[in-house]
Amino acid sequence: MAEDERKATPDDLDKRLESVRQAYRKGVGGRSSKPATSAGGEKLGVGMRVAVELVAGVVAGAFLGLMADRWLGTKPWLLIVGFVLGCGAAFLNVYRVAQAEERRGKSPPSAE
After folding, report:
1. Rounded to whole angstroms, what are the CA distances from 59 to 44, 65, 80, 85?
2. Cβ(27)–Cβ(40) under 8 Å?
3. Spans of the chain below 70 pLDDT
4. Which residue pairs from 11-19 have beta carbons closer than 8 angstroms and sit at least 24 positions apart in sequence?
5. Which residues contact 79 (CB under 8 A, 6 or more apart)?
6. Distance (Å, rounded) from C-alpha 90 to C-alpha 77?
7. Domain ranges of the chain
């Protein structure tokens, strides 16, 4: 280490940290001043919702069909009917989620 290099003092570090904080608040460098909640997190949430809707619809339909089969003694017909109805309900729910996301994507961003 060269002797002519200046060692950083705590005061110098405080000044540099404050200037970085001010730049962050102003949004220097093309960044917004609000923390990045990231659209990726929102998209992940929508993807998880779609997955849950698919699984829940199929499982609920199959379960209700199975229970109705046991109660009425019609194995496996009501299980098949419940499975098909559950799949239809699941895809309808996924379609509704997709339509809501499309509408949300087209709407102008709210002023925050």
Report:
1. 22, 10, 12, 11
2. no
3. 1-6, 28-38, 109-112
4. none
5. 62, 65, 66, 69
6. 20
7. 61-104
